Structure of BBS7 protein:
Amino acid sequence: LAGPVNHGVFRQVGVTAQKTMRLLPASGKKATQKVVVGDQDGVITCFGIKKGEAVPVFKTLPGQKISRLELGGALNTPQEKIFVATGSEVRGFTKRGKQFLSFETNLTDSIKAMYGHISGADLFLCASYIYNHYCDCKDQHYYLSGDKINDVLCLPVDKVNCITPVLACQDRVLRVLQGSDLLYEVEVPGPPTVLALNNGNGGDSGEEILYGTSDGKLGLIQITGSKPIPKWEIGNEKKRGGILCIDSFDIVGDGVKELLVGRDDGMLEIYNFESADDPGLRYDHALSESIASVQGGCVGKDGYDEILASTYSGWLTGLTTEPVHREGGSGEELKLSQEMQSKISSLRNELEHLQMKVLQEREKYQQSSQSSSAVSSVPAFSVNDKFTLNKDDASYSLILEVQTAIDNVLVQSDVPIDLLDVDKNSAVVSFSSCDSEPNSNFLLATYRCQANTTRLELKVRSIEGQYGTLQAYVTPRIQPKTCQVHQYQIKPLSLHQRTHSIDHDRPMNTLTLNGQFSFAEIHSWVVFCLPEVPEKTPAGDSITFYFQNTFLGTQLESTYRKGEGCFKSDNISTISILKDVLSKEATKRKINLNISYDVNEESVRHTLKLIHPKLEYQQLLAKKVHLIDALRELQVHEGNVDFLLPKYRSILEEADQLLEEYKRQPAHLERLYGMITDLFIDKFKFKGTNVKTKVPLLLEILDGCDQDGLIAFFEAA
């Protein structure tokens, strides 16, 4: 198999959420399966495929948006009952579309995750931080998670003989439950967004779970009764999108199920298993928008399996194993081309009909808009956005996906940030000059998109200590022109990322707060300062969070309770930023804070040693880039470059990569200079000394770039 070929688009429904499309099991003599999909208009659509055309089975009326769709049924019977989660309600439908269940849960939030294969009568639901297990629609178990729950599943009861639910939580943890209690936690390498049973049944033991993370990593863990056993993990070397859906299906037909993975950048991947514990990427296919659900099955033609994907804006696309050019002489070829021709002509007719309809409606709109009683209505459109910190290059990715084509996106920021280059971005960017003084405007950039662009990815890098708001004004190509504004907070310690543990042997500086504040108040200040902290106040009396600075690799430990907070970091600038922001927040609420700090002199030397290799690398890169033009001129004049020293020859050979890297990270060197300057000022600020007059001297030393000289200057000052 060279890989399934694109079989075309079957139909479009409304905007769809993650995990809302399934294939019903084949019934009777027919081997082809029906497709059922739920959308954000609240409509469930079920259809089959005949001769490449979608044939409707049923369609429900609109309602609240559908957040999950699962199949279920009694044990050892076909799983063909359709369950949807909509708002805080679960509804059940037969495969013919008749509603047989309407279960209003007591959840205050909307259901975000639901587990199907509702064998017997068990139902597992999650809303934000809350997990509930119902049996025969009666509340059985309840659990409050420490962070948002993204997905839930239960190990197969027929194999493991007990109910073992697993929650995928935003704080990079899988929580394994027993009843209403936490059995244990499993740390995973990124925030898990989706869970699936390995092979669709949990493997031989029934204990194997696949997970996908929002930063594109994939892994398999065996969840035993006492501890987790990690089996394998695939990083995201190709820097692809986050994983939204996983399915296991034997598309090759060799008796071993492949792994189907759908990502939020439109990548559909097929992994196969050369050996049991080492999946390899066999095939991939790029779609133009994020893949919300993926399923393997036999849909279009008996005897030919295919992979069906539903995307964010509601397109259903099939990749089939059916060969497009058949062997067997010209007769077969002719038959196929006639079939194709009739399909193409019917599509042409449909298109012409639609164009006529659009023209008529547009004329009607123009006429009505000129009458005095006309009311202009703002067309509603859905935007799917994601603002996340990338650990690899300490930058933020802003991904905007719109259900119709984007015309332009205006990006505005009231704090200094750098816009970085994104390879996948084909939009034309233009910058407007902005006055930062009266209305604190530091960035105004417009991205003009090419026709049919529905997804735009931007990258920005912030500066720690400078905090405010980044705003994106999204204007799609619809009439009348409408714009939606989306806001993203740039936090004071914006380059910090949550981590499971830190190195306690490093030299640490400590900041201690005491005062008349509640646990909820100090938690809200930490949420204000740092990314990836759950907004909900944690259960219990106290909490500890660990963070790592993605740019420098320094770390932060924060422990706090009612009336007391303790923050430790090996970077004195992190402590300085926290001290300034926390005292400002407390002053706003008229709370008197007692602040004390313990500065470790050794930590400054330690931080400089972490920064220095990065500084040296960037300075060398800048020097090489400045030499490229002169060396190229020499090359043109002399005809060959054999007379040059090897180091200069290698600069010429690597010129394109060097320029590419330099362009990808503008202002990288300035940022490092800024961090060292801040470190210098902060070190002496805690001693009550102002050393701003010595900064020009520091910058001169930085140009010389000698680590020992730099450390000596810090100590002598």
Remarks:
- The domain at 496-599 is CATH 3.30.310.200 (TATA-Binding Protein).
- Residues 329-370 form the longest helix (42 residues).
- Residues 357 and 434 are 44 Å apart (CA to CA).
- The chain has four domains: 8-320, 383-490, 496-599, 602-716.
